[in-house]
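Q: Please design a sequence for this.
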């Protein structure tokens, strides 16, 4: 964990006293734990049961967390995704009649009339074009009135996409003309090279076929073996291999039928897409 060794080095070199309270520990961390960023005073956050730290290793923003068992049990809606230590997320859906309420800020793209279902798109990537960073993203995108099997066709057939979030326009460009499932779009995404894939003229080319041709020109001949895709009826997820240094980025597309079966995972993932600190107040 980048920078964490600084507090231990300071403890040895300066014979720092052992903290007996959370306040004493906070004071030591604020003075001796090295973090880097634009607002370092807010990057070390310590509570009774968790420590959350954000820093910058000159290549990417990153965060690390220490969470005890009590916090994990008390706040699954905030921590389940961060504590989920395997890939992919599980499939499966809830029994009919279950209701999902996320309570986290999202951006909305309307492709269908309002209805009880909704699709969510969460892309965790390097230098998001919406923000220029890979933490403190601008939140998931919600497509109300849809289930996941509906998404590809409605994205492709939409007339005006210039005001959509970047990731939604990217997904639309990846959805092949004539295709009717989102899995093929994520297969194409998994084959994109580089750590910030985006068509050069994505913001200026309005004709979908032209965008799609440009996307195809960016595809490598074979998807890297390291990339992973998992497609279920109501959740599609891809871990796209970038390189040995940056590792992977991830894209999750799921609907309320999946979210009602895994509400803690769904809410914590949506929360992480909106803020690096799972305890940040949100509405």
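A: Design:
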């Amino acid at each position: 964990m980048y920078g964490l060794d600084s507090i231990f080095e300071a403890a040895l070199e300066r014979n720092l006293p052992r903290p007996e309270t959370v306040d004493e520990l906070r004071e030591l961390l604020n003075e001796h734990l090295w973090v880097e960023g634009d607002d370092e005073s807010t990057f070390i956050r310590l509570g009774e049961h968790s420590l959350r730290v954000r820093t910058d290793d000159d290549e990417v923003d990153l965060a690390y967390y220490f969470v005890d068992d009590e916090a994990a049990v008390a706040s699954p809606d905030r921590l389940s995704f961060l504590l989920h230590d395997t890939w992919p997320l599980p499939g499966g859906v809830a029994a009919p009649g279950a209701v999902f309420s996320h309570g986290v800020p999202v951006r909305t793209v309307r492709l269908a009339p309002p209805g009880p279902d909704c699709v969510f798109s969460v892309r965790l990537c390097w230098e998001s074009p919406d923000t220029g960073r890979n933490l403190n993203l601008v939140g998931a995108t919600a497509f109300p009135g849809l289930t996941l099997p509906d998404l590809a066709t409605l994205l492709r057939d939409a007339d005006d996409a210039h005001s959509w979030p970047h990731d939604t326009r990217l997904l639309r460009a990846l959805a092949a003309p004539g295709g009717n499932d989102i899995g093929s779009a994520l297969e194409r995404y998994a084959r994109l090279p580089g750590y910030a894939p985006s068509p050069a003229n994505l913001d200026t080319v309005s004709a979908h076929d032209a965008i799609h041709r440009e996307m195809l020109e960016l595809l490598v001949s074979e998807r890297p073996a390291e990339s992973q895709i998992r497609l279920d009826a109501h959740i599609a997820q891809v871990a796209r291999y970038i390189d040995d240094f940056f590792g992977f980025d991830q894209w999750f597309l799921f609907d309320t039928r999946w979210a009602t079966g895994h509400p803690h995972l769904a809410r914590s993932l949506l929360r992480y897409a909106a803020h690096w600190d799972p305890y940040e107040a949100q509405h």
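Q: Thanks. Anything notable?
A: Confidence is low (pLDDT under 50) at residues 199-223. The first strand starts at residue 44 and ends at 46.
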